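User: quick one, fold this
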Amino acid sequence: MSNSKQELIKRIECKRAQLIETVGKNGLSSSITIQYSQELDCLINEYQTSFNTSKLFTVAGSLSS
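Assistant:
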């Protein structure tokens, strides 16, 4: 696994832990919970964009063959 991929996975796991802790302390609708949720969404989107696009093209390429 590449170093940048490992770093991004660590960031996702850390943000997920922060989110879970914040939900417990502040509830689902607090501004900090919403902020952490949005940050987690961005990290997950970054991961999907960076590391899953090759699978998408492989599948799309095999369908057109």
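User: anything notable?
Assistant: Residues 3-26 form the longest helix (24 residues).
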